Amino acid sequence: MYSLLFLILGFVLLYYGGEFLVKGSVNLANKFNISKLVAGMTIVSFATSSPELFVSIEAIVNKSSDIVFGNIIGSNIANIALVLGCTALFFNINVSDKTLKIDFPFLFFATFSVGYILYFLGKITFFTGLILLMILIAYLFYIISSSRNEKNSIVDQEEKNDKSTYLNCFTYLILGIVLLKYGADFLVSSAIDIATLLNIEERIIAVTVVAIGTSVPELATSIVAALKKEVDLAVGNIVGSNIFNLLAVLGITALYKEIEIMNNDILSIDYLFMFIITGIFGVMLYFFDKGKINKLKGGILLLIYFSFIYYSIIS
């Protein structure tokens, strides 16, 4: 009973922690006049990926590497199939040329690279974690430097009149981090307790319940962005969050402690499905009405996601 209450409390803290972190990040981005897409790919993506980072570090401290991999892989699946699916179900999404030419190909590269490492090493070591972070830094440097000539700014007329101070921005950031930290504590400990009590693999709990919980900030951000007609921010947030999960969350966690695969199903089932859903996302982007994610595609993504959840639980 208490484990379930702490699980719910963990979800709530992660949600509000993500909200505060996103608010502080976006306000800070406004002050630096960063383009919408780049803001979504960098500041907002890192902010919405923070729950995955905190949960992963907490899990590795508790020697639960299955939760680390399950959380990251499950979150990436949820971001594409659940978050993008829900957003597209209500809003038609036009994807920018930059995402088609640079961002998605890089996401596919990151997805393939992590799988390659896991297949041959069976773990993410300190050294490979460092390489992942270096690749991410190089990518961020490229997209930020290449955006300097872009005219599309994240700041609209209403936001230009925003009176937020740097103190307010950093207050939101710090409050968000604190809430995320305790939310991760409650979520991981209760997930482990429930898995033990019900004799369910930690991997299943991580790839379903925990992953959905840590994807709540992405869902909230993408829907709010779509409502404000900030489509670049919505798409950039989803693609960027998946990149950050693979390179930053795994990389930083591996610097703290080596992450080894304990359950082979993580690679043979969960990672394989993540790779497939990323490929399906690519097909939707480049074929069948190129550069657009409509309601039909959103419905297909949701159907695939719920099929994955059903299969995971039944198996």
Structure characterization notes:
It is built from 12 helices and 4 strands, in the order αααβαβααααααβαβα. Helix 7 runs antiparallel to helix 8. It has a single domain, classed as A middle domain of Talin 1. It has 315 residues and is mainly alpha-helical. 82% of the residues lie in helices and 3% in strands.
The largest β sheet comes out as:
2 strands, antiparallel
CATH architecture: Up-down Bundle
What's the total helix number? 12
- The H/E string reads HHHEHEHHHHHHEHEH
Write out key terms for the chains shown.
about 325 residues, mainly alpha, A middle domain of Talin 1, two-stranded antiparallel ribbon, 12 helices, 4 strands, globular
Quick structural overview:
The chain is 82% helix and 3% strand. It contains twelve helices and four strands; from the N terminus they run H-H-H-E-H-E-H-H-H-H-H-H-E-H-E-H.
Q: How do the helices and strands line up, and which of them pair or pack?
A:
Blueprint: H1 2-32, H2 36-61, H3 65-90, E1 93-94, H4 97-121, E2 123-124, H5 126-146, H6 157-160, H7 166-197, H8 202-214, H9 216-227, H10 231-256, E3 259-260, H11 265-286, E4 292-293, H12 295-314
Antiparallel strand pairs: 1-4, 2-3
